[in-house]
């Protein structure tokens, strides 16, 4: 069984910074793309940033230059450094990973999700 656990959310003032972390654990054979998504109240979940296994990155336009995604393959961990935070960044942030498990090595990688961590940007 695979679990993704996020941490690092919280309350921050506009212009502040937060660093989110997400650790994948379980019977993992390999991890392809990892990413961060967010869902604000009353809105659909949206992509924030993704990073492939060879560290190619992709960002939502509104976070480019402010957010940085990175990963540590040895630790099965993905990070999201968020700087110059704005009130519109307020949302629950979810970690996603495309994972092949040891038991299902013969299958295509599957999507796994964390339970989310709340980021609130407010005075």
Secondary structure topology:
Blueprint: E1 2-7, E2 10-12, E3 18-26, E4 28-39, E5 46-51, E6 57-59, E7 67-72, E8 77-82, E9 91-101, E10 110-113, E11 117-121
Parallel strand pairs: 2-11
Antiparallel strand pairs: 1-3, 3-8, 4-5, 4-9, 5-6, 7-8, 9-10, 9-11
Oligomer: single chain
Mean pLDDT: 97
Q: How would a crystallographer describe the biggest sheet?
A: 7 strands, mixed
Q: What would the principal axes of the Cα set say about the shape?
A: elongated
Strand content: over 45%
Number of strands: 11
Q: What low-confidence regions span 5 or more consecutive residues with pLDDT below 50?
A: none
Q: How helix-rich are the residues, as a percent range?
A: under 10%
* SSE order: EEEEEEEEEEE
Description:
The chain has 123 residues and is mostly beta strands. It is 0% helix and 58% strand. The strands form two sheets. Strands 2, 4, 5, 6, 9, 10 and 11 form a seven-stranded mixed sheet that branches. β4 and β5 form a beta hairpin. The chain is elongated, with a radius of gyration of 14 Å. The termini are far apart.
What characteristics describe this protein?
123 residues; mainly beta; four-stranded antiparallel beta sheet
Summarize the structure.
The chain is mainly beta and 123 residues long.
């Amino acid at each position: 069984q695979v679990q993704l656990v996020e941490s690092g959310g919280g309350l921050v003032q506009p212009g502040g910074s937060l660093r989110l972390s997400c650790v994948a654990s379980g019977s993992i054979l390999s991890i392809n793309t990892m990413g961060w998504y967010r869902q604000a109240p009353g809105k659909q979940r949206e992509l924030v940033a993704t990073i492939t296994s060879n560290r190619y990155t992709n960002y939502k336009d509104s976070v480019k230059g402010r957010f940085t995604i990175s990963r540590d393959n040895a630790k099965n961990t993905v990070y999201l450094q968020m700087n110059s935070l704005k009130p519109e960044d307020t949302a629950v942030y979810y970690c996603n990973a495309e994972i092949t498990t040891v038991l299902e090595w013969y299958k295509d990688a599957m999507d796994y999700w964390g339970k989310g961590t709340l980021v609130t940007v407010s005075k």
